[in-house]
Structure formats: structure tokens, C-alpha cells
Amino acid sequence: MIKVLFFDFWGTLVENGVWSPIKQVKTILGIKDPFSEYVVKMEKAMMTRSFSSLREAFQALCVEFNVSCTEENLDLLVGMWNKSWMLAKPYEEVVEVLQQLTQDYTLVLVSNTDCFSINSVLEKYALKQYFEKIVFSCEIGKIKTDEDFFPTVLRELQVSPEECLMVGDSLQSDIEPAERVGMHAVLVDRKNSREHGHKISSLRELEKKIGELQ
Q: Which domains does the chain show, CATH number per domain?
């Protein structure tokens, strides 16, 4: 029986204020790695520790990919990243759905994120109140694709994988890592552009999907 719902943040609960910031970073820096490889390296470099400034975080990213980090590029990256979180907002159904789900489930927020943006958005829209536990990659030094990310969180919650459901918009970062450890998983595919056995186009469809998985 599913008791705990894990939610991704960016792209699942909250829409970025600009188009795909992670892809824009790749373009601005001219990184040639395939996207599936790039995103893991990018998140490990920038989202598994705290930095004194966003500028420093992007400098660390440039070192990781061995690319030139000009002052012009740094200005572009910092401006774009800040614009993204400052204009970010929850998808229109999110608050209503979270309020309903807290009546029957324990909610957990898990996010690959930098240390600068997510708390501001959570506080701006008063979203923290819905979650029993919040896990950020920048605070625990792991991203969701790391083998021990989900097992560590499950042990802390003292629940089995079969009692948990991961809800996220990324097959690579959310769905596949959760399924590898035996969790249920539902893909949020708002544009109906990807294939997965269990997917929804709006969080309003989630409770029905949970019923199908029980």
C-alpha cells in the first residue's frame, strides 16, 4: 500500500521562469557532451554543495567541463539563472492537489537543486508546509541518480520502497532511479511527449493513478 509520495520540484511542482535553464547553460558554455551525460555531470558539479555565490557555482561548472568561462558568459549565466527562479511559479493545480494529498499521505520533496533558488520559491508560495521531509542535493551532497540517494531517504523515513511513489517530470533523474530501488513511479508529462507505463499530464490525475497502482 502506498503511504509516502515523493515529489520532484522543478518542472513537476514549479515551472521555471525561463525555458530549460539547464539546457541554456549547455548552450551558453558550448558544452558538447550528450545531454544525458551532461546533465548528471552538471548537477554533480553545481548542485551537490554550497557556494558563496552563483558566480562561483558556474565557475566550478566550467572547471568540471574544462571550458572557458568568460566574464561575459558568467554574466549571462547568472542573469538567466536568477531570472528563472525569480519568475518561477507553481503549476496552477499544485496547491490544491498538495492540500488534498496531505490528508491521506506523507509528502516528501526531493530535488536536485543549487543552494540559491529553491528556498526562495518555497517561501514565496508557502509550499514547505505540505512536506513532512525535504531533501536537497546541495545539502546532502548527492543527486537522485546516485545509487544511495533514495535508499538513504527511505531508511530515514523507515518505509519500504513498495510503500513509496515518486512523482517527477524526468525519466532519467526521477523515474528510473526510483524504480531501480523498487519504488512506484509516475511521470508528469504535461506535453504528452514521452512514453512511460504510468504517466499523467496534470497532478489532478495523480490520485486516480495511485488507485490504479495499489
A: 4-15+89-213 (3.40.50.1000), 21-86 (no CATH)
Q: Tell me what percent of the residues of the chain surpass a pLDDT of 70.
A: 100
Residue 172 DSSP label: I
Contacts from 183-191 at CB under 8 Å and sequence distance 24+?
183/6, 183/150, 184/2, 184/213, 186/210, 186/213, 188/8, 188/11, 188/12, 190/91
Q: Which residue has the cell 533523474?
A: 173
CA distance 52 to 7: 28
pLDDT tens per residue across span 29-84:
999 999 999 999 999 999 999 999 999 999 999 999 999 889 999 999 999 999 99
Please give the Cα distance from 98 to 207 (Å, whole number).
11
User: How confident is the model at residue 162, as a pLDDT?
Assistant: 96
Cell of 39: 546533465
Overall size of the chain counted in residues: 214
Q: Is the pTM of this model over 0.85?
A: yes
How far apart (Å, rounded) are the C-alpha atoms in residues 93 and 97? Answer: 6
Q: CA dihedral in degrees (61, 64, 66, 69; nearest 10)?
A: 20
